[in-house]
Structure formats: structure tokens, C-alpha cells
Amino acid sequence: MEAFDVLGDPVRRRLLEHLASAGELSAGGLVALAREEFGISQPAVSQHLRVLREAGFVTVRADGPRRVYALRGEPLAEAERWLADLRGFWSQRLDSLETELARGRRARRHTRSTDPDHAAPAADEPRRMA
Amino acid sequence: MEAFDVLGDPVRRRLLEHLASAGELSAGGLVALAREEFGISQPAVSQHLRVLREAGFVTVRADGPRRVYALRGEPLAEAERWLADLRGFWSQRLDSLETELARGRRARRHTRSTDPDHAAPAADEPRRMA
DNA sequence: GCCGCATATAAGTCTTGACTTATACGCGAG
DNA sequence: CTCGCGTATAAGTCAAGACTTATATGCGGC
């Protein structure tokens, strides 16, 4: 998942956000925004744009001397899928965990410490989160 | 979106994948996997686990002398939401841009300014850069 | 209490990559 | 053709952070 290496940089994330809300933006426009928000130079932005381009996050269209950038959906969808898969596995595990707990909570008291060689087979309590 | 800074590292991504598919794993188990796949040492993995912990990606449970790690869904969901929002904006803004670029390669003729539509007027900025 | 195992932290090194300035490239105007 | 503007690339510097070795902490067994 190379995509997350690209998304790891806050400047690049912000550039993508701007492209998302604006639809398309010229390189100059993006430079202006990044300069205002991060205080970085034109070449710095251009290098970020190259990374985004090579990772397929954006497309470029030439409009006269200007380069107009637009967001591409596919890499975003791919990253989203990776996250969703993780969560899928996670909730699946949580479900079976809760099922087992609901079934055997009474019958199963603490039975650990007789088998130090094995990995933990199940959780003692379901981790509640938001 | 601090979450993406965490997900930016391939070792951490792999640790999360393992946790997702295994349900829970002891620190030692994760060390073994990371050592095998990346050839890194125990402290290296421990430091990655700290990052994951502090960002809320995992929970830790003490089982005797062992630390048992498990995935948390919330940060994943949050990152997923950020991506989905971007894609939402993007598809909402859907112009002929994407399709034109995808198949307009053979006809390498760009008719500029046939599109008076002002989708991206913010390209110009009044100030000159230093 | 003492020892050993599982894990975490400390301290230091080294690589990655984000930034800088300087320069090259391409296009439209005159 | 030449100039100027917009953008990309080159080359070099610097800092973040991922890794190392060495050491501290905490728990269970004896």
C-alpha cells in the first residue's frame, strides 16, 4: 500500500483537500495555498505534486503554460478498501469474541497460568470503544 | 489527520494487518513477525508499538509478563472517513475531466478556452512570490 | 528474596526525504 | 526570434525519525 506513504505528508494531504473542494486548481494556485498555510516555496510544492502525480493521486492537464491539477478517485478508493478490510477483520474477530464471551462467561473462570508456553487464546474482557 | 502519519510506515501497516487477521498478538509474536519480514530488532518493533499505542490504533492487555495487543477500530474509521469525504467532493465535482484524460490521449489536441466554465478561477493570485 | 524471561526505554547513529536556491524548459505574446 | 511567465528539475543542506546496542522495569517461578 504505497498510497499511505504518499498520504503520510501533511502538505500533500492538504493539497488533496484543496483539490477535492475546488475541483481543479493550477499549480500556481496550489503553490499560493501551500505557501500561505505552510510557508514553503514553489519548488517544494512542485515536488509534492510530482509525488502525487507518480502515485496516481492527481491528473494534470495543460492549459496554455499552466498545469491544471485534478483529483483522481481510484487511489483514494484503494486506500479506503485497505482500511475497510482491516476493520472488517477486526469487527469479525470482535464478534466471535463477544459471542464466545456471552456463551462461556459464567462457565469459564480464570484458567490461565497453567499453560505459559502458549499465546493468549482469548481476551478476558471485550474492549469497549467509542 | 495524525492517523496518516502513523500509517505512513510500512512496518506499522504490516503490524496492523497481522493484528487484524490474528485478533490479538503478544509483543513477542509481533516481534517475531516483523523480524522475519523486515529483519528488524525487538526494540525497533517496541517503538513502533508505542507509536501505534499513542495514536490509539491498538490496545494493550497485560497477561502475566506478556503484553497482548489488539486492534482498535476507531482510528481506522476516522481515516476512512477522511478518504471518503475527499472522494465525495471529488465525485460531486465530476466533470468530463477524468474521461477526457483517460481516452483523449490518442487525439492529442487540446482545445483550450472552449470551456468558458470557470471551474478553477482561483489559479491566479495577485501577489508575486519572493 | 532472587533469577530469568518478556517487554519497554535510553542514547546514539545513520538514512530518508522535505526543504532551500539556482537553473532549465515550454508556451504565448510582441 | 526573443522575452517573460509558469512550472518543473538539479543540486545541496538539514532535520525527522527509524534503526541500532545497551540498559531498565516488571512479573512468575523457584
TrEMBL record, chains A, B:
Record keyword Transcription regulation present = yes
Entry annotated with the keyword DNA-binding: yes
User: Compositional bias of type Basic and acidic residues: which residue ranges?
Assistant: 112-130
Gene3D superfamilies, per the entry: Winged helix-like DNA-binding domain superfamily/Winged helix DNA-binding domain
Q: Where is this region: Disordered?
A: 103-130
- Pfam families assigned to the protein according to its UniProt record, in alphabetical order: HTH_20
Q: Where is the HTH arsR-type domain?
A: 1-91
Q: Which CDD domains match?
A: HTH_ARSR
What UniProt keywords are attached to this protein's entry? DNA-binding, Transcription, Transcription regulation
Q: Record's NCBIfam families?
A: HTH_metalloreg
Protein name as it appears in the record: Transcriptional regulator
